[in-house]
Amino acid sequence: xxxxxxxxxxxxxxxxxxxxxxxxxxxxxxxxxxxxxxxxxxxxxxxxxxxxxxxxxxxxxxxxxxxxxxxxxxxxxxxxxxxxxxxxxxxxxxxxxxxxxxxxxxxxxxxxxxxxxxxxxxxxxxxxxxxxxxxxxxxxxxxxxxxxxxxxxxxxxxxxxxxxxxxxxxxxxxxxxxxxxxxxxxxxxxxxxxxxxxxxxxxxxxxxxxxxxxxxxxxxxxxxxxxxxxxxxxxxxxxxxxxxxxxxxxxxxxxxxxxxxxxxxxxxxxxxxxxxxxxxxxxxxxxxxxxxxxxxxxxxxxxxxxxxxxxxxxxxxxxxxxxxxxxxxxxxxxxxxxxxxxxxxxxxxxxxxxxxxxxxxxxxxxxxxxxxxxxx
Length: 376
Ligand SMILES: *Cc1c(COP(=O)(O)O)cnc(C)c1O
Prior knowledge:
Blueprint: H1 12-22, H2 31-44, E1 48-52, H3 55-65, E2 73-77, H4 82-89, E3 94-98, E4 120-123, H5 135-145, E5 148-152, E6 160-161, E7 164-165, E8 172-176, E9 189-193, H6 199-206, H7 212-216, H8 236-247, H9 249-267, E10 281-282, E11 288-291, H10 295-307, H11 323-328, E12 329-331, H12 338-344, E13 345-348, H13 356-369
Parallel strand pairs: 2-3, 2-4, 3-12, 4-5, 5-8
Antiparallel strand pairs: 1-9, 6-7, 6-10, 8-9, 11-13
Helix pairs in contact: 1-8, 2-8, 3-4, 3-6, 9-13
């Protein structure tokens, strides 16, 4: 059986974790956290990276930092993970969804302006599959209407838009190091602070609402409760694992892209709809998908692949159609593509330990499935 995903594992992880244990420093903000944060700052060019317990928590921190309140509106695509919305709903915001573009599955930047009202505070572009949203347009809208941009770059570690790393373009950006992502420490994330103004309050929110970080730098002589906050620090054991993975990320990225290209070379000329990468984006091979004619055909293809030992899986069920979505969200304009395209999308196995031959086999099984069928 070839699973859909296997978490990344690199050699140095165990050495680093052992070292963290020997250092007698297991809670957050030790040497490994500092190194991993510096690695992110140096490689991706952000003012400050803070490791968090998850991308979900980094998004929650962003909502607290931007002082999101009851009645505020936040614009995002409905085709995303629940946390993108939940983080803002937890602060009392109303989520306003905008349709996606069928070519990238990202928010349709041309439909955002119609969704902006006097209550709008934030736009949250989600870089699906590690392929960038049209950030120039989004940043220009934010400027015009005085809005914040929080990039959900959970899937975008190592990806770029016009030479800039995803997560570093908006005011704030978030990464995920969950085991389903390109680099992992089990559960983990990062908040990227690209706007100087949020530096100090971000440290406070992440440290249970205390000025503990300032205390450790010797800037205050005792630490105390200064604002609301929570426990968003990643443990040193996780940071140790993460640093080992980040140090090998260029190699990993190259191989993921190789597998991604192999899928594309086999399946696109065959006539299947595959992911589109706009020319100004450099992606990270986070995921490869094909689009089937419809939901029925997708279910049949899943079963066909499964009978040959390959796991393929669909992705998000649009949030506006969910139970909570009905309570906390509205859809601006028409859902032309969100539901339709989400029902056609099927993700294929792609991970560092996957062999090139397996990709070949998967493609052959897909081609076999379409024998005698017409491709939409
Ligand atoms: C994975 C993911 C998240 C959540 O990440 P966690 O680290 O599991 O909290 C949020 N948004 C998107 C788009 C994701 O893919």
